[in-house]
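MODEL INPUT / OUTPUT PAIR
PAIR INDEX: 1
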Amino acid sequence: MLLFIDNQNCENKLPLDNTYGDNYYSYILYHSLTGEKEFILSFSSDEKEENLNFLFWYEYNLFVLDTGSFIYLIDDTLHIKAYLEVTTPLIGIYLTTKNNLILLEEASFRIVSFEGEILKHELFDLIEDFSLENDQIYIKTSEGNKIFTLM
């Protein structure tokens, strides 16, 4: 894997060395107009590719990368600003209108700032259903219904 990355004609490479798993992923990000390689992000994971998430947080020039075990906030110079452990399977990630990141796991809900600061964290039984409406998230669990305002 390191040989593959070294053979790529790209100066901006970030191999995430502290990741583990049977699958090795390399994401090569190209400039959409010139076709030049801009960045290479690589990591290992036990997750299938279709279960991983990748988001570009435009307002802060951040890559949000889900490796199955961690969520990384990586700036456009490939510096890791923060990383957060995923404790239960991730349902998804979402940017709020107030420019914070939502991490929704099967048994938890977090609101995270662009600096990686956890602004809100709630744990509960497994989520049975959820919906997003009017800057609020409605979560149904066996404990009952919960409503959170998205900051």
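PAIR INDEX: 2
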Amino acid sequence: MKRIVICILVFAMAALAACNTDTPKEVTMNAAEIYAEVYAVSGYGTMTAVPDRDLTDIYAIDPDKVADRAWYMSDNPSLNADEVAIFKAVDEEYAAELVTIFNQRIEDQKLVAMSYSPAEFSKLDNAQVVQSGCWVYYAVGTEYAAMMDVLGTIFGE
């Protein structure tokens, strides 16, 4: 009986922790603060936040499974591929789904960019979606390496 109680307690604690200790390095910043750090090294001009309605309508993201996010695109994403997405999912399973969604986003943008700008295509060709526990992020831009260095430092990658 004692083993059963211990097993139940361990399982309950793990379930409650879901994504509270979601990365090897504890992330104390929220998505907006992380974005501000990335933006500071990005070389971006004006960026536009992706509206909440677009999560489900365009990208098939379940907002109920997203604990925190910052997602910004260039003012004219049809002509400029600059973009940063930083999401914290409610669990690692949904974080893995976000990886798939964002990888598809990048592939779709590559198809568009091939027709208008080799420079924009090369930005997208470098982009890599990263999952760190419940966090998922990627960056697209000419300062890709600097942005990913900042993200890697924050997430302990």
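PAIR 2 NOTE: Strands lie at 47-49, 66-74, 83-89, 130-132, 135-140.
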